[in-house]
Amino acid sequence: MELHNHHISNNSCNSNPVSFEISGNKSQRSVRHKSVQFEDTFLLREENPRLIYINDPRKTNDKYEFSGNEIRTSKYTIITFLPKNLFIQFHRLAYLYFLAIAALNQLPPLAVFGRTVSLFPLLFVLCVTAIKDGYEDWRRHRSDRNENNRESLVEQSGGFRLKKWKKIQAGEVLKILANETIPCDMVLLGTSDPSGLAYIQTMNLDGESNLKTRYARQETALAVSEGGTISGLVRCEQPNRNIYEFTANMEFKGQKFSLSQSNIVLRGCQLKNTEWIIGVVVYAGQETKAMLNSAASPSKRSKLESYMNRETLWLSIFLFVMCLVVALGMGLWLLRHNEELDTLPYYRKRYFTHGRDDGKRNKYYGIPMETFFSFLSSIIVFQIMIPISLYITMELVRLGQSYFMIEDKDMYDSSSCSRFQCRSLNINEDLGQIRYVFSDKTGTLTENKMEFQRASVCGKNYGGSLLMGDPLQEKNIAVTQRRWKLKSEVSVDSALMALLHKDVVGDERIAAHEFFLTLAACNTVIPILTHGTSSSCINGEFHEDVEAIDYQGESPDEQALVSAASAYGYTLFERTSGHIVVDVNGEKLRLDVLGLHEFDSVRKRMSVVIRFPNGAVKVLVKGADTSMFSILANGTEMDDHITNATQSHLSEYSSQGLRTLVVAARDLTETELETWQCRYEDASTSLTDRVVKLRQTAALIESNLKLLGATAIEDKLQDGVPEAIEALRQAGIKVWVLTGDKQETAISIGLSCKLLTSDMQQIIINGNSEDECRNLLADAKSKYGVKSSNGRNQNLKCNKNAETGNLKVPVNTKSSNVPQWYAGKEDGVPSVPLALIIDGNSLVYILEKDLESEVRTLCFPLHKGFCSLVICIF
């Protein structure tokens, strides 16, 4: 991101590049991050990049290859509505059957009912469904029209004028004001903040309510602040669906610099806490990342409707056989009475009556045709076997269901003044047939509000005696400079606070200092100062120079760590593109940011390279213990003692359900710095494999680190989560949770939210190879008496209820009283409830075809008992 895009002279690069590679086991290399899953598609981007000429849309789209900014989410148009809607409706086999019956009834020899009357039932059902679908699509058209006719400020003739969204083109320069929605994907050129900072809310994209930070390059931000027309060239990748990556370069006033995800704002986001931003459009309309991820509205069909299609097919086959038998009997009867047909009623060839009809010939078509007509007439007579009234009733019932669901007072949220919404009437009945619930943990089961709880510094555990409020006041520590007041209070440990303010300089004091300095510097959090002062009482005296400070960032974990550092006296209060300023117990410390490697799920860590005022350069790193301990330096016996103590503390924190991180640092030599700077500059400006190259560059400095300590953060469960999960389990619904925590933390959270219970047998799969995972699965199957899938096929066929997951449980039954399944009652089913826990490395191998069947065999009890699945991908 912009914070670490520091210009470095290429003169420092060695003419002979140093070869290097990332070491790691096979399992680590197999894991792919969500932002890396599109890497293979980036390989050809540099060969055919998209060229965006800033403030020159005509030159940008001179070949008319870029789409406009008009969007369409509707399914039908006036021309396509009738044929497309009929095509979708006739996916119901019963409708084809009724259409065939109506067509047969139009033939004179087969007309049982009136020709027009026979069409009414089918036309009624088709019209009701078409009106419903048409109304839903009309609402989409209305939403599209309102969206396309919204207006934004576009630079035209040297000034910003309002222009409708649908007329915005790639290459135009837009100005977005506070609380407005972004109309298209834009590269930031400048903001109202002098440092080029902007805050956006991405709830419409990823559902996250916390604000994200985006940055304008200092080169363009300075030009925007000076005024005048901005011109330049943006060379970016072709439109793609990946909202977590953006690879581009910009040529501006003879300079060429890189652009990343932190420099682009996407359509649908909202500008928050920023007066205005100015940016250039790179993707518009259907080519924006939001629209590329917005699939066309599917034609939803419920399970009941699919079941009725199958039943209709079988009834049609049975009806065909019945009519065939009737026709065959008619043919045999006509053959037997062939000589008597002249005198038999309805089959005599000539009338023998007095009057006008005397001698008139009867409509007789011969035995074969009479047999065929008998077959068709039988279809009309037996058509009631598939009643069309059933489908009419279903449509009316769905309409009534939607009314009662919308008006249900128990589903009204008074805090947001919102009620239940029924957006599709076709799947109402599926709400009562849910068998599985897949859930994320953070922000879904938890509040996503992190609180700093424990810390391990230099092998010692802190956090047992926490103090609230003003920690310096509690310890009677004098403060000579400005004090900072956090928006939310942070609990601190008195012993750790005393250590930080010792006058004696020792290894433990230095480690604690670097520990909290890393928490304050190794992040992407932006400090927000509240202008004006407030009074505070320190040592019995009132001070009027206390200034309020708040932190905004993409990660709540980082905000909690930075707030904790501030509570202990290390306050980050200024951040620009090239430096940060930290108030260390009243003394301002300015640190130059030379580069920052963001966190990803392959490295599982984050690092920042900073230069101190005395010229020393350090790399500060924080990350998961699984990735940090392997890159620590081989130190003395004391270092080994600290490492073992820290690992013990981490296990203790994880067992308490806390989120843990390991903190480390080391000094960089001039040679290491020059080598890293050269590679970093090349990697950050590359249009191909930028993520891989930056990861390889980070490996140069993320090694031989000195362990400083570890942190533990608490993310509390939301109110009612344990009760909700218990109710789901009582209803026979299986709950599967995906979390990024450590295995111990995931188990602890699972117990606290009642996803796991004490009577469950935990099957833990945490192998580092395919063979190890296979052995763990085989041991679990043999231990709990689960047979292989081949030996259990007969049980699957015989037990329909188990296959569909239907389990009857009384409403007032508690989970502890729910009857369990015993091996003596049914072969191949364990006698105790099971919980399957899979870590991220094992999941890579388990998803392979060879082991997938084994996992299905092991998960078979999940269909029958009250079992759970926890997947840890950390």
Structure description:
- Its main location: membrane.
- GO terms for molecular function: ATP binding; ATP hydrolysis activity; ATPase-coupled intramembrane lipid transporter activity; magnesium ion binding.
- It catalyses: ATP + H2O + phospholipidSide 1 = ADP + phosphate + phospholipidSide 2.
- This is Phospholipid-transporting ATPase.
- It is found in: Membrane.
- The protein is of the alpha+beta class and about 850 residues long.
- About 35% of the residues lie in helices and about 20% in strands.
- The chain has 26 helices and 33 strands.
- Strand 24 and strand 25 form a beta hairpin.
- Helix 9 (about 305-335) runs antiparallel to helix 10 and helix 14 crosses helix 15 (about 555-565).
- It starts with about 25 loop residues before the first helix and ends with a strand.
- The model is unreliable at about 1-45, about 470-480, about 535-545, about 790-830 and about 860-865 (pLDDT under 50).
Specify the biggest β-sheet.
9 strands, antiparallel
**Uncertain segments:** 1-46, 469-482, 535-543, 791-829, 860-866
Radius of gyration, whole Å = 36 Å
| Lateral strand order in the biggest sheet | 16-15-29-28-27-26-25-24-23
Subcellular location: Membrane
Organism: Carya illinoinensis
GO molecular function: ATP binding; ATP hydrolysis activity; ATPase-coupled intramembrane lipid transporter activity; magnesium ion binding
Protein name: Phospholipid-transporting ATPase
